Amino acid sequence: MGQSAAFFDLDKTVIAKSSALAFGRPFYRDGLITRRDVVKSAYAQLMFRLGGSDEQTMARTRDYLAALCKGWQVEQVRQIVAETLHELINPYVYAEAAVLIEEHQAAGRDVVLVSASGEEMVRPIGALLGVTDVIATRMAVVDGHYSGEIEFYAAGPAKVDAVGELALTRGYDLSGSYAYSDSYTDRPLLECVGHPTAVNPDRQLRKLAAENSWPVLEFRHPIPLGRRLRDRPAVPVAAAALGVGVGVAIGIAWYGRYRRARTAPTT
Asked: What pLDDT digit, counting tens, does each position of 97-116 carry?
């Protein structure tokens, strides 16, 4: 029997929003994407989640991601993420997920974030949670810019391949390991461990969990990490719902006004 590990999907499992869409506003502000790109990205992600884990859907999403990021400076992306992480991600970490991560770590298990979002986004989010191991999408880089090619797309069965490689390297016993996800697209990830758990599951995953008698958890309390540590074990009574599409456009407008207000000279 080897060491066990705990594998966490990121979006809607650990944080109450899409990690990729969360950075849409600063990417728009710095000229990396247009307003149309933001809405198209939101729509592409929604279609991916609704369309399931078929290869055609994943391939379209992967190709769109590669084309969107082509030519971006890697260092610029990293700087944007670093500057906005605490504003755009920290308030949306589920208190329940943070506690669960701590419990696994206290039990001596390695915790690994597994996400289709880019590594430049996922790794800093992991650091925010005290997690150093991540499996995420890796973009090809040429002369400090994304080339438009994807070296590894961390979605569907590819997640399982990466988990298997990590388990082989580290000696993890997957039959004694844990996995958490909200999406049916992560069925292969959940089925590759001995202790799968559905978190805030979509309809298909909820049905799958019922058929296999998997535990189902409902995380409802996103709260900033600093506040959670001060107020522990208290959590908010309710969390606000997050919109996609129109909500993204509204968010861009709000962020633009917020930035202008911060940078306007005082008189």
From this structure: 999 999 999 999 999 999 98
